């Protein structure tokens, strides 16, 4: 009977420790986010630019150089977009189209990237500060490397194509 009580007490003590142990999914996400950071992306949990969405979602952001801001646009996967939005390529619609046409090389890279992204990738957004992928992190770190290479190339192509001219800095 004493051994049973000792066993119960040990289980009672060990249970919280087991809850703190990361799950296999959390371990995979940790490796994915570390890999993304090593490939130039910052990862934050933020509210995505989707209507009627409650909560937060992982946002992978590649920053444009401060001296070369990027254009503003927002692409949404068909499954989360209104049919009233203008279609862009297979499975994606413009919520906000760029003011000026993108360069042909950048447009080609963007279309190829959109066709390869997993189904849980819901939004690709560009603002003057960065290029952002909103997705549920279904891929491994190795697979993500293919997307990161394309996002880095696209960021480099779109840098300097801001919708508004950068404000000159004032020297003191």
Can you walk me through this structure?
By secondary structure, the protein is α+β, with helices and mostly antiparallel strands. It has one domain. The protein is 38% helix and 22% strand. It contains 4 helices and 7 strands. A 7-stranded antiparallel sheet has the order 1-2-7-6-3-5-4. Helix 2 runs parallel beside helix 4. The N and C termini lie far apart (80 Å). 24% of the residues are buried. The model has no long low-confidence stretch (mean pLDDT 89).
Kindly list the characteristics that best describe this protein.
4 helices, alpha+beta, Preprotein translocase subunit YajC, 172 residues, seven-stranded antiparallel sheet
Number of helices: 4
Approximate helicity band: 25-40%
Q: Rg, please?
A: 21 Å
Which structural class best describes the helix and strand composition?
alpha+beta
Dominant shape? elongated
State the strand order across the main sheet: 1-2-7-6-3-5-4
First-to-last CA distance: 80 Å
The fraction of residues in strands falls at 15-25%
Overall pLDDT, averaged?
89
**How is the quaternary structure best described?**
single chain
Write the H/E string, N to C.
HHEEEEEHEEH
Low-confidence spans: pLDDT under 50, at least 5 residues?
none
Number of domains: 1
């Amino acid at each position: 009977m004493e051994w049973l009580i000792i066993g119960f007490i040990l289980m009672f003590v060990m249970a919280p420790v087991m809850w703190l142990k990361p799950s296999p999914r959390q371990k995979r996400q940790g490796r994915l986010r570390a890999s993304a950071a090593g490939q130039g992306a910052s990862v934050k949990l933020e509210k995505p630019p989707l209507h009627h969405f409650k909560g937060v979602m992982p946002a992978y952001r590649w920053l444009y150089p401060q001296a070369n801001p990027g254009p503003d646009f927002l692409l949404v996967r068909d499954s989360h977009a209104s049919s009233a939005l203008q279609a862009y390529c297979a499975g994606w619609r413009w919520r906000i189209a760029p003011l000026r046409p993108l360069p042909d090389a950048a447009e080609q890279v963007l279309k190829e990237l959109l066709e390869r992204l997993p189904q849980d990738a819901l939004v690709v957004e560009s603002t003057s500060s960065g290029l952002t992928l909103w997705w549920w992190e279904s891929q491994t770190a190795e697979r993500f490397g293919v997307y990161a290479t394309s996002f880095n190339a696209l960021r480099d192509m779109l840098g300097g194509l801001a919708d508004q001219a950068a404000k000159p800095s004032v020297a003191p």
